[in-house]
Amino acid sequence: MTLKKPAGRASRALRFVSSAIVTLLMLVTLTFFLGQVMPVDPVAHIVGPDADYETYMATYQRLGLDQPIWVQYKLYLGRILTGDFGTAFLTGNAVRDDILRVFPATIELGTLAVIIGAGLGIPLGVLAAVRRDKPTDHIIRVLTLLGHSVPIFWLGMMSLILFYSKLHWVGGSGRVAIYYEGMVPTRTGMMLIDSLLAGDFDVFWSAVRHIVLPAAVLGYASMAALCRMTRSFMLEQLGQEYIITARVKGLSAWRVIWGHAFPNIRVQLLTIVALTYAAMLEGALLIETIFSWPGFGQYLTHNLLMGDLNAMMVCVLIVGVIFITINMITDLLYEVFDPRTAR
């Protein structure tokens, strides 16, 4: 048995890596053919509307667009494998550099939002299940219903009007006050961490005041989903025979809930939290637009509106990589939270 277990783990790892490679290859293929059918002329974006025919055709040939479709696909695949994602028409920079510049802002916002969502949603979901059909349960369910029903862009705008314009409790748009921009060196791209590393607490507290509202709005939406799922999972466990047996034995309610019932839903919750986090890193388009947050979502939106095909294809590819990576990490954590999955 001790010899088969490592072999089984190696086999599972090999299957998962193979599946990830095949999925990425399919995603790359999908983005390539998506670019072929989109009504966007990349050459026109490069040379401009006033270019003559010779300049247009020279650029057309330089991009390899005069080659057969299978040759274009081969060249595209080769560039992707070497990390050459081309140039963004909107900024004139390499798409890779643009992504590295904007993505840390989304990681910072999404991480704080999922911490708020999971930190509130999971305990409230457990409380709602324990207090089923009581006033506490009804209040929590109304809060989660509002989180699902209220459009996030409306909630974001109303929050800005109330907490920023009227009460002045938080900062406005952007990541820091305008007079703090560029005052700390960029090391991680995350303003909270960079300001702490620089020892500049004025910038740090400005960053806190600016991130707390968009993170709270985004976290509220995820909290609603996590709360409802946690309540559903806990209700299922609280009706099981082992819970009844634990109560008959005289165990405290705290031990029954957190020591017996909750451990059996951790793996399910891990999946929900991971997918929620992946969705946030994909780009909270509306939140980043409303709060002028210079992240991945806003970058994707601007390039979509400008018809920047090259940048859009890379963004689609990155979204797929995010979900595949999160799924890989989740599968690895399964064995930590539930060793039975390692068999």
From TrEMBL:
Q: Which residues cross the membrane?
A: 12-34, 109-130, 142-164, 207-227, 269-291, 311-334
Query: Would the keyword Metal-binding turn up in this protein's UniProt record?
Result: no
Q: Where is the ABC transmembrane type-1 domain?
A: 103-334
Q: Which UniProt keywords apply?
A: Cell membrane, Membrane, Transmembrane, Transmembrane helix, Transport
Q: Which GO terms describe its cellular component?
A: plasma membrane
Q: Where in the cell is it found?
A: Cell membrane
CDD domains from the xrefs? TM_PBP2
Which InterPro entries does its entry note?
Answer: BPD_transp_1_N (IPR045621), MetI-like (IPR000515), MetI-like_sf (IPR035906)
The way it spans or sits in the membrane comes to: Multi-pass membrane protein
A molecular-function term among this protein's GO annotations? dipeptide transmembrane transporter activity
Q: Indicate the family of this protein.
A: Belongs to the binding-protein-dependent transport system permease family.
What is the official name of this protein in its record? Peptide/nickel transport system permease protein
